[in-house]
Amino acid sequence: MRAGVIRNPRSHAYRRGRAPADPPDALIATPSSPEELLADLERFWREGVDLLVIDGGDGTVREVLSALSSAYAVPPLLAVLPSGKTNILALDLALPRGWTAAEAARAAGRGRMAVRAPLEVRNASAAKQGFVFGAAGFVSAISRSQGLHAAGVFHEGVVALGVVAAVGSLMVGGRGSTLGEGEHLTLRIDEGEAQSGLRLATLATTLERLPFGMRPFGPPRPGLKLLDVDAPPKRLAAALGRLVRGDGDAWLAARGYRRRTARRIDLALTGPYVLDGETYPAGEVTLTEGPKLRFVIP
Questions:
Q1: pLDDT, tens digit only, all 298 positions of the chain
Q2: Contact between residue 200 and residue 185 where contact means Cβ atoms under 8 Å apart
Q3: How many domains does the chain have?
Q4: pTM score, two decimals?
């Protein structure tokens, strides 16, 4: 098996002095632009790389997965090294911090793998593949969470904040906060009718496991999952426990907290949205489940 490593040398781990440990015959690339990334992936394909190691944080994973189909007709086996400030896919796959490309190659040789499908977000100009989408108050909450990096909060801590940040910000700011006023959007699930209104937060993921056992999307399961919360929120304090535990669907739905599983979600957004920590401009977007990919696990 030939390994190729796409590495972000500016990721959190390497800026703190980690030394990489790669298979002796691995191809190594450190692209600094989308064009360089695509060229490196095409070179890996030509040279027979069938284990693609992504060494970086959530943003690096998002960019590699988004470009992968342009270089590979059939996706290679993938491995993720959790070296970024946030590594939510690595958490879902239960990957250890400090895992190396050499260790991933050995695990691949033992046939250790799990299947995950990314979330594909398509707008008028492009499609991106990631794992956590958020709109409305989630965008403001993610922006606030960036300050945690400066305070030394990384990995599960900042990811957990991101998933529940819209609710947490309201708890701190109070019902009358700007965040609580919500953002207007229009949402359509599968072939259902479009629904418009003010939302506190609209979140989607294809992950099965979130930090600290949180279950805002309900019980762990594959597929495209949605949490859609009206603004202003009702019975917020009482809802929070149910959102974290993953239960109380009927109680939550009656008060404007809706969990759904979908094949396709169409959104018309009046404000920006976030995919795996990156902010994109307002507009119309379509969310679907991306291709099933094989990831090496320990």
A1: 899 999 987 765 565 556 678 888 999 999 999 999 999 999 999 999 999 999 988 889 999 999 999 999 999 999 999 887 778 898 899 998 889 999 999 999 999 999 999 999 999 888 999 999 999 877 776 665 554 444 333 344 444 445 555 445 544 444 445 556 789 999 999 999 999 999 988 999 999 888 778 899 999 999 999 999 999 888 888 998 998 899 999 999 999 999 999 999 999 999 999 998 889 999 999 999 999 999 999 9
A2: no
A3: 2
A4: 0.86
> Regarding beta strands 51-56 and 3-7, do their DSSP bridges make them parallel or antiparallel, or are they unpaired?
parallel
CATH code for the domain in which residue 29 is found: 3.40.50.10330
User: How far apart, in whole angstroms, are the C-alpha atoms of residue 167 and residue 92?
Assistant: 22
Q: What angle do CA 120, 125, 128 make, to 5 degrees?
A: 25
Looking up tokens 């781990």 gives: 13
> Tokens 């399961």 label which residue?
221
Please indicate, yes or no, whether residues 104 and 150 belong to a single structural domain of this protein.
no
